[in-house]
Amino acid sequence: VTVRLGDAVWSGEIDLPPTGDLDVVLDAPPPRPRLHAVLEKGRLRLRWSAGGTVPEQVQFTPRLSPPAWSDLAVVPQRTGDDWTVELPADESAGFYRLVRE
């Protein structure tokens, strides 16, 4: 038997009863949240789906080659089904990512 769920694959043997139902429980990691960014009135608002009770850590790097990721000292706020953070929008370019703790 092979079970595929996204990128996760499990293969193995199962002793099946001659008749009846087979219950299968799949324990897959939660989907990766999609990060949305809005620039408004000199502030950068980052928003992503809540998905769980513990928010992801927001990190920043000014460049990708090589990256120098650092945690931002902001606490995400739960707003409905989303987590949000607001940051001052300065003129330096950079990249943001979410990291699960």
Structural notes for this entry:
The chain has a 4-stranded antiparallel beta sheet with strand order 3-4-8-7, with no helix packed on it. Helix content is 0%, strand content 42%. By secondary structure, it is mainly beta. It is elongated and about 70 Å long. The chain has strands at residues 2-5, 8-11, 36-40, 43-49, 57-61, 70-71, 77-79, 82-88, 95-99. The mean pLDDT is 80. The relative contact order is 0.23.
> How many beta-strand elements?
9
Helix/strand-derived class? Answer: mainly beta
Spatial arrangement of strands, main beta sheet: 3-4-8-7
User: Helix share of residues?
Assistant: under 10%
Measured between the Cα atoms of the first and last residue, the distance is 33 Å
Succession of helices and strands? EEEEEEEEE
Main sheet attributes: strand count, strand direction, barrel closure: 4 strands, antiparallel
Strand portion, in percent? 35-45%
Shape: elongated
Count of helices?
0
- Average of per-residue pLDDT values: 80
- Write down the Rg: 20 Å
The low-pLDDT segments are: none
